[in-house]
């Protein structure tokens, strides 16, 4: 028996997506004494990080006595390749996402693999309220009990956490002049970009991968996300697209027949009979996540998947051995996502386990992270639907008794006219986006200035550049990483030149 989706990222997308659907080389100026030399020993991706905890302030923005409460914030650190404070060697910091930091470290190899080249210290910081970084004595039940407790969970508090922890860490290491580079993917990428903009005195630069900082109302269309999912599958096979598009109505019709629920259970190998909406959510989750993680090599980020899983899904649908039975075709496709290892005997749609500790994203999606992505045109692979803020409002009022702050993110961090705004004051940010990633619709896809660079990969998926490299990586992906490294080298070169003048 196996869970349907791991509810972790399902919550991320359900609340942000489904509210209204039915469901260069080293610069010559680089100081020779600080030249970055690769290590001769190979990188071990399983090399363990040391786990540490930092006593973090609960509320960074309130000076009443209550604000001086604290909690233990987890971070992972690897100093194997660090050149040390005496050489002002850099510090690479991953700005943690909405989940267990160990999971992100296991799926983010860029920092560790390039640490020898840059002689960098590597640090992964866990986001408050996720993993083991739980306020109120580490008791999740207390921390999640009501809006008064959950009110301390926000992006602004998280960024202040990172600023406080990094500052303290540098002080303890006597590394005050060591430059800090922040990295992040998805929500973590949003945090990395915002951190550079809000704390430029702490972070020299940021690599924000697949960061949908423009996936906001009146900036990016709520239809953009599912338009990309649709195009991903349509680009592989018109028949594949058509079979999936017709499946939602077919599931609805079948479920109304007397023997329909039993037929659906048998066709999809569910552990027990399920309602049509649950089945459609199960199937749409597989389609969306496969589009997000359409990596060129096998992965185990959300679920174990083969290389190019969208292509593999469509091959299953187009397989002539499945005949004309749509459910057989759809099961074969869903099986790519849910059961690629072949170990599942039946699918439990009632399983609400959260193996990556992402459950609190629902609170963030109900307060500040209003990312409209649930609209579907009539050409969409999903049933046509319109995104309405009112649906989000009603859910959040019912579930948390809170009203979403509809325009807080663009008010606090910006977003409107970003090209005109950021080129006047921002610098040293790399925005990577892969155009097969549905979140790229809300990403920065054009250079804003000579130091705010957009790297766009036509075949790229969700933060694929930050994943551990693979011998089978295509040339375009290797080129993306080389470009990112060259840009970071430029930033560091200029930093060390400036440092030498003081």
TrEMBL record:
Any one GO molecular function term: serine-type exopeptidase activity
Family annotation (Pfam families): Peptidase_S28
Alphabetically ordered keywords of this record: Glycoprotein, Hydrolase, Protease, Signal
Name recorded for this polypeptide: Lysosomal Pro-X carboxypeptidase
SUPFAM superfamilies for this protein: alpha/beta-Hydrolases (SSF53474)
Signal peptide: 1-22
Domain of life per record: Eukaryota
Family stated for the protein in its record: Belongs to the peptidase S28 family.
Single Gene Ontology BP annotation: proteolysis
Keyword Signal part of the UniProt annotation: yes
Tagged with keyword Protease: yes
């Amino acid at each position: 028996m196996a869970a349907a989706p791991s509810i972790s990222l399902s919550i991320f997308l359900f609340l942000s997506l489904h509210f209204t659907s039915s469901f260069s080389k080293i610069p010559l100026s680089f100081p020779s004494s600080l030249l970055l030399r690769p290590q001769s020993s190979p990188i071990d991706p399983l090399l363990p990080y040391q786990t540490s905890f930092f006593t973090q302030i609960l509320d960074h923005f309130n000076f009443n006595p209550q604000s001086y409460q604290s909690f233990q914030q987890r971070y992972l650190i690897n100093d194997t390749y660090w050149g040390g404070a005496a050489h002002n060697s850099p510090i690479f910091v991953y700005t943690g996402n909405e989940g267990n930091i160990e999971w992100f470290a296991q799926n983010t190899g860029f920092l560790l693999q390039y640490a020898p080249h840059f002689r960098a210290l590597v640090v992964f910081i866990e986001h408050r309220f996720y993993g083991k970084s739980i306020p109120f004595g580490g008791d999740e039940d207390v921390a999640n009990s009501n809006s008064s407790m959950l009110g301390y969970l926000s992006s602004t508090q998280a960024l202040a956490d990172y600023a406080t922890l990094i500052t303290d860490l540098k002080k303890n290491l006597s590394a005050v002049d060591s430059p800090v580079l922040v990295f992040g993917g998805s929500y973590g990428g949003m945090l990395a970009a915002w951190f550079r903009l809000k704390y430029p005195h702490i972070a020299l630069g940021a690599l924000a991968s697949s960061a949908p900082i423009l996936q906001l109302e009146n900036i990016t269309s709520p239809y953009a996300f599912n338009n990309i999912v649709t195009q991903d599958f349509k680009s592989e096979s018109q028949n594949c697209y058509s079979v999936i598009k017709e499946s939602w109505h077919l599931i609805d019709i079948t479920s109304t027949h007397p023997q329909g629920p039993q037929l659906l259970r048998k066709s999809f190998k569910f552990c027990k009979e399920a309602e049509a909406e649950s089945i459609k959510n199960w199937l749409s989750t597989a389609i969306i996540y496969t589009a997000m993680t359409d990596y060129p090599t096998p992965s185990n980020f959300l679920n174990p998947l083969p290389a190019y899983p969208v292509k593999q899904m469509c091959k299953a649908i187009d397989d002539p051995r499945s005949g004309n039975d749509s459910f057989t075709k759809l099961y074969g496709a869903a099986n790519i996502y849910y059961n690629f290892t072949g170990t599942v005997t039946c699918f439990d749609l009632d399983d609400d386990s959260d193996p990556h500790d992402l459950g609190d994203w629902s609170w963030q999606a109900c307060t500040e992270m209003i990312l409209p992505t649930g609209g579907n045109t009539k050409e969409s692979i999903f049933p046509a639907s319109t995104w309405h803020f009112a649906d989000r409002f009603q859910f959040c009022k019912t579930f948390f008794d809170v009203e979403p702050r509809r325009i807080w993110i663009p008010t606090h961090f910006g977003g409107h006219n970003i090209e005109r705004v950021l080129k006047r004051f921002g610098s040293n940010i790399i925005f990577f986006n892969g155009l097969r990633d549905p979140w790229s619709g809300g990403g920065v896809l054009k250079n804003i200035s000579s130091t705010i660079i957009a790297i766009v990969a036509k075949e790229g998926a969700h933060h694929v550049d930050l994943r551990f490299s693979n011998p089978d990586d295509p040339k375009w992906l290797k080129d993306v990483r080389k470009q990112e490294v060259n840009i970071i080298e430029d930033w560091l070169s200029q930093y060390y030149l400036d440092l030498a003048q003081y």
